[in-house]
Amino acid sequence: MKLHLEIWRQAGPNDEGHFESIDVPDAVEQMSILELLDHVNSGLVEAGKEPFAFASDCREGICGTCGLYVNGRPHGPEKNKPACQQRLYSYSDGDTIKLEPFRSKAYPVIKDMIVDRSALDRVMQQGGYVTVNAGTAPDADTLHMNFQTAEAALDHAACIGCGACVAACPNGAAHLFTGAKLVHLSMMPMGKEERGKRARQMVDELETNFGPCSLYGECADVCPAAIPLTAVASINKERARAAFRAKDD
Asked: Which domain holds residue 26?
């Protein structure tokens, strides 16, 4: 399969970027987007040219590092899949594929298709932890949690922090990411002591670095973990709860 690629090239954060055209005459439908980039880079290295920089790690859909735009859509054309699991089945011979970094004010470009997503880390630093008693491990049945609550918490804990929700949002909002974390932690039996403090600090950090949510819904459409859009509602819910429950301070 022949493909025409337009790939973003940018030497550094302060450099002007541009698209570089490359024709791939021997692409295979079974290739993922990342494997296609590997194939291109192998040819560049053999020719003594600089390969394109992009981030990836596990390639199993659980690490969240492989974020990039594929024809203007985070990760690729298929819904709720990371770039490492997006295959070339969606394309036909002669198609053009444009690859570029996530576009968001919160994600400054480091090089080529690698962006700095530390703004998401700063949200987690404000409340993504729980307080536990140190010492002897408690018995397994000390903390009670029913099956339905545990499953709901795990569904939201599945967020891999890839940041595609921010890149897909016209406002550059990170409410799906932050909401998933707040829902997950609020359902767990441990960490109740800092629930209110967590909500205030995480939401404050969210609003400092990201745009407002207008419920467009694009975030849930591209989320590899299929976090439901209802997670966004937890932002206001947890913030309101913290405002009326002073004992959580």
From this structure: 3-111
